[in-house]
Automatic annotation (TrEMBL):
The lineage of its organism: Bacteria, Bacillati, Actinomycetota, Actinomycetes, Propionibacteriales. Residues 153-363 form the Glutamate/phenylalanine/leucine/valine/L-tryptophan dehydrogenase C-terminal domain. It comes from Nocardioides bigeumensis. This is Glu/Leu/Phe/Val dehydrogenase dimerization domain-containing protein. PANTHER family: LEUCINE DEHYDROGENASE, VALINE DEHYDROGENASE. Keywords: NAD, Oxidoreductase. SUPFAM superfamilies: Aminoacid dehydrogenase-like, N-terminal domain, NAD(P)-binding Rossmann-fold domains.
């Protein structure tokens, strides 16, 4: 199902495309060149929280598709993590290296402020804690701020930690022990999250095969772990290598039919959002005997970290909560086995159950923090 809002016709209208979502806001500020989309999937559990992705999308249609998928994933991520938060996401269309500036970020902050607290923003691809500090000059609903401004700082630290905990849980199912010691892990993307994950894996005794489109990211990963990281030139080479675990840590859609067909890994567990290229890939993984740790289950550490800011940030408290991803992933695998379904389906069921059971008591989150009945 595709749509190009800039074209004269579309195969699907916006309401059908966003039929699961409460609200989609298109933000346009010609003075700064800002073009952004904020998608609020659900506020049944509380105000929506999710990062702002600054990326040179090929079209408005591509940006809209991405923000709708990502915001839906945030609802499930928050629910499975046990947070009283809903799911939202935002995208700014443009090249952050060329287009990002104070005026544009402040204009974006004013749009987020206009939502009155139904959506809290944070860092994502192309945005960082200093950007959140700029946005916060116009907006009260910002998390992921720098430590000097009382924020949690870079949420990639606990994102990686949570993925590592999920990987330990998967290793326990696959090999009987919750450790990656002696295993070979392929990490696709060693940037914001991936390089922290590499460090944790090496500390646990794993060997890492890495790839990234950024030479600088690869150079940093090797420099930090010179004896334990081997580099390959492409994701295609990585997925074709002899691996015990494959960790997609770049953009979504990494698990295609072709990738699943050639994977030698027994576990897939990574930080990327929306890893399954299409419905049915989870069944292909299961048929090949590959244990898939659902992405929004294991990569929720960053959300847990920035959500902690809403209480007054404490890193050790947030890390302790992120450590619970080990038990949550275990429960997903237990339910999958008990129900005879793929882990991705089991995770959806757990998240949907909480949104249904708790959400029915709360309704839609309104700007004045009242709830409809």
């Amino acid at each position: 199902m595709s749509i190009d809002p800039l074209a004269g016709s579309a195969s699907t209208d916006v309401f059908e495309l966003a039929s699961e979502h409460e609200q989609v806001v298109f933000c346009n500020d010609p003075a700064t060149g800002l073009r952004a989309i904020v998608a609020i999937h659900s506020t049944a559990l509380g105000p929506a929280l999710g990062g702002t992705r600054f990326y040179p999308f090929a079209s408005t249609a591509a940006a809209l598709t991405d923000v709708l998928n990502l915001s839906r994933g945030m609802s499930y991520k928050a629910a499975l993590a046990g947070l009283d938060l809903g799911g939202g996401k935002a995208v700014i269309i443009g090249d952050p290296a060329k287009d990002k500036n104070e005026a544009l970020l402040r204009a974006y902050g004013r749009f987020v402020q206009s939502l009155g607290g139904r959506y809290y923003t944070a860092c994502d691809v192309g945005t960082y804690s200093p950007d959140m500090d700029v946005i916060a000059r116009e907006c009260s609903y910002v998390t992921g701020r720098s430590a000097s401004h009382g924020g949690a700082g870079d949420s990639s630290v606990l994102t990686a930690y949570g993925v590592f905990q999920g990987m330990r849980a998967a290793a326990e199912v696959a090999w009987g022990e919750p450790t990656l010691a002696g295993r070979t892990v392929g990490v696709a993307g060693v940037g914001k999250v991936g390089h922290h994950l590499v460090r944790l894996l090496v500390e646990d005794g794993a060997s890492v095969v890495a790839t990234d489109v950024s030479p600088a990211a690869i150079a940093r990963a090797v420099a930090e772990n010179p004896a334990h990281v081997r580099v390959v030139g492409s994701t295609e080479q990585l997925v074709g290598a002899e691996l015990d675990v494959y960790a997609p840590c770049a953009l979504g859609g990494a698990l295609t039919d072709g990738v699943v067909e050639v994977l030698s890994a027994k576990i897939v567990c990574g930080a990327a959002n929306n890893q399954l290229a299409h419905p049915g890939v989870e069944k292909m993984l299961e048929d090949r005997g590959i244990l898939y740790a659902p992405d929004y289950c294991v990569n929720s550490g960053g959300l847990i970290q920035v959500a902690d800011e809403l209480e007054g940030f404490n890193f050790e408290r947030a890390k302790q909560r992120a450590a619970g991803i080990f038990d949550t992933t275990r429960e997903v695998f237990r339910l999958a086995a008990a129900d005879g379904v793929a882990p991705a389906i089991a995770a959806d069921r757990l998240a949907e159950r909480r949104m249904r059971d708790v959400g029915r008591l709360r309704g839609v989150w309104l700007p004045d923090e009242t709830r409809s009945r």
